[in-house]
Amino acid sequence: MPEAVAEVRKAVDRLYGHRVMRRRAGEVTSESALRGARASAALDGADWPLEEVRRRTDFGADPEARTVGAALRISAEAGQLLSVWRTSPLQVLARLHLLALGDADPAAGRPRQGAETAEELFPIALKATESADAHDDAHGEGEPVGAMEAELPPAPSADEAAARLDQLAKLLVERAERPTGGAPALVVAAIVHGELLALRPFGRCNGLVARAAQRIVLIAEGLDPKAICPAEVGLAELGTAAYREALNGYLSGTPEGVARWITHCGQALRLGVRESTAVCEAMQRGMV
């Protein structure tokens, strides 16, 4: 894991040193937000081409469109919530959820209560499993699908999720009050991301909120202060099956499982750096 942390730091530093960042950092940030939103929506089952996301203005027509719209709204505002995050992470999470669902939804911004349950985290994984099953039907039974079929443990009860979320928020506020020392930024971001996926505090859109929270932590911790490293792009590139498998490692609670999750998040962030480096190169050649 220390190697993963060091590799991420080097990759991010190289991107920040790109000559395009001296003149067009704001444009790189905007493009990163767009690409990160597209990828986060894809991980929630709405896998649209980037140009379709860039072109569309109506995001309320169907469930996939609403998912893309939710990811875009969250991505656009996440960087503006930094000061609130340092003192009240729970308020930021509620705001992200409100952005995802919209003011008209009575559940928007409200954590689960009572016997309320959380929706499936990985709709794409189900599609992949169905595809593999179809392949087996056509060609005979082969190797097990493995990670795509691995079941995630059920989300904790609403009361347990609320208690654990409150404890996470307290730890984050304490860290913000003592900014020096402690765990590296990548580790903090990965733990926040993993814990939100584990708790699934809301009925819907937990994946979108968790990935946005990771982005906010990376900004707040100073690893990616200009928000130009879209880790969501890397998560989508690595695939839903790998994402699910790494999360299962985190949920196991073992040191090896948690390290595997942090390493996976580091790989995703490096791929996000590669994406933004390509954007910078295109800008330098006058293609953007």
Care to describe what's here?
- Helix content is 68%, strand content 0%.
- With 288 residues, it is mainly alpha-helical.
- This is Oxidoreductase.
At CATH's second level, what is the architecture? Orthogonal Bundle
Percent in strands = under 5%
Q: Low-confidence segments, ≥5 residues, pLDDT <50?
A: 124-149
Q: And the CATH topology?
A: Fic-like fold
CATH superfamily: Fido-like domain
Tell me the helix content: 55-70%
Count of DSSP helices?
Answer: 13
Total tally of structural domains: 1
What is the residue-mean pLDDT, rounded to a whole number? 89
Helix/strand-derived category reads mainly alpha
Largest sheet: none
Write the layout of secondary structure elements.
Blueprint: H1 2-16, H2 21-43, H3 50-55, H4 63-78, H5 82-87, H6 89-101, H7 123-139, H8 158-177, H9 185-199, H10 206-220, H11 231-238, H12 240-252, H13 255-284
Helix pairs in contact: 1-13, 2-4, 2-11, 2-13, 4-6, 4-10, 6-10, 8-9, 9-10, 9-13, 11-13, 12-13
Protein name: Oxidoreductase
Domain Fido: 88-264
Organism: Kitasatospora terrestris
Quick overview:
With 288 residues, this protein is mainly α.
Features:
288 residues, mainly alpha, 13 helices, 68% helix, globular
